[in-house]
Amino acid sequence: MKKYSQHLFKLSFSKINWSFFLLAILIWSCSDDPEPEVPAENKFLLESSLKSELNENLLKNIASLGGYGSFTDIIRNDIEIHRLKYNTTVNGKEVIASGVISIPKNVSGPIPFLSAHRGTIFGDSESPSEANPFYAFELFAAAGYATVLPDMIGFGESKDMIQHYYNKEANAQVTIDMMRAGREFLKEKEIELNDQLFLLGYSQGGFITVATQQAIESDPTLDWDITAVAAGAGSYNIEFVMDDVINRGIFTAPGFLSLIVYSFNEVNNFGKPMDYYFKEPYASQIPELLNGSKGFGEVNSALSDTLSVYFQSSFVEGLQNRTETEMINAFKSNSVQDWKPKAPLRLYHSSGDQYIPIEDSKETTEVMTKNGADVTFTQVGDKPHSAASVDMVIEAVPWFESLRTDL
Question: What is the pTM of this model?
Answer without folding.
Answer: 0.92
